[in-house]
């Protein structure tokens, strides 16, 4: 069962991405990290599998403050 904390973290990260306060790559990494607690099987979930795939395919790209270099 998903905890209220996990639900709130998922919603807050999604809102930050949509508002432009969090980059899409960094946001997907955060959502992928939350996926194990958010859904029963993230690899079979049509929404969370996208976050996991994007996080995996972009893990070599700089995010956050490192991106400016």
Overall residue-averaged pLDDT value: 88
What amount of the residues lies in strands? under 5%
Major β-sheet profile: none
Task: Spell out the helices and strands N to C.
Answer: HHH
**How many separate domains make up the residues?**
1
Task: Give a structural overview.
This protein has 3 helices and no strands. The protein is globular and about 40 Å long. With 69 residues, it is mainly alpha-helical. The model has no long low-confidence stretch (mean pLDDT 88). It has one domain.
In short:
The protein is an all-alpha fold and 69 residues long. The protein has three helices and no strands.
Topology diagram in text:
Layout: H1 4-19, H2 24-38, H3 48-57
Features:
globular, mainly alpha, about 70 residues
């Amino acid at each position: 069962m998903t905890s209220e904390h996990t639900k709130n973290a998922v919603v807050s990260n999604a809102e930050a991405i949509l508002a432009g306060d969090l980059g899409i790559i960094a946001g997907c990494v955060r959502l992928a990290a939350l996926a194990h607690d958010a859904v029963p099987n993230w690899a079979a979930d049509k929404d969370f599998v996208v976050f996991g795939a994007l996080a995996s395919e972009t893990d070599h790209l700089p995010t956050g403050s490192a991106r400016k270099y």
